[in-house]
Predict the structure of Chromate reductase.
Amino acid sequence: MNKVKILAIVGSLRKGSYNRQLALAAKEIVKDTADFTLLDYQDVPLMNEDIEYPAPDAVKRVREEVKAANGIWFFTPEYNHFFPGVLKNLIDWLSRPVSENEPQVLAGKPAAISGISLGMSGTAIAQDHLVTLISFLDMKVMNVPRVTVPNAWQYVDDQGKLIMESIYPHLEKQAKAFVNFIQAKCL
């Protein structure tokens, strides 16, 4: 069987973000069973119908990466009980038809969600909002298991690096489940 292709979308643009670190840990977990890539989308402009057609090059690039993936794994922080605006902006671009002949690129894609935040909800509220949006866009959401890590400061060393010891088993369980979910839905 072919390796599944997972595209990770991190809801924070900060290079050292906890969610990026969580995504990189997931990449290590699935390295033998899936191709895992982190989407770089910091150059995607704000959604603006005045520049929608033809789409900016950055938007074309991220659409192609989404189309090539078998599954999308979101890693989102929680800002004010919601997922970040940069993630919403990206999803807005991805939710638009590519052209008159090609629909949006998220429909039918399997999706998983993880997140770590400084707050007590551990991104659970942001994840629920994200599920509402991506379900509307016809993504196939794997609701169980999800990883929500609260109080991130408890899992960070003095260099700002995640200490994965207690998080790793939960992430590993989700990674295995997501690979199986993708294989069942797509391959």
In short: The helical segments are 18-30, 57-68, 85-94, 124-136, 168-186.
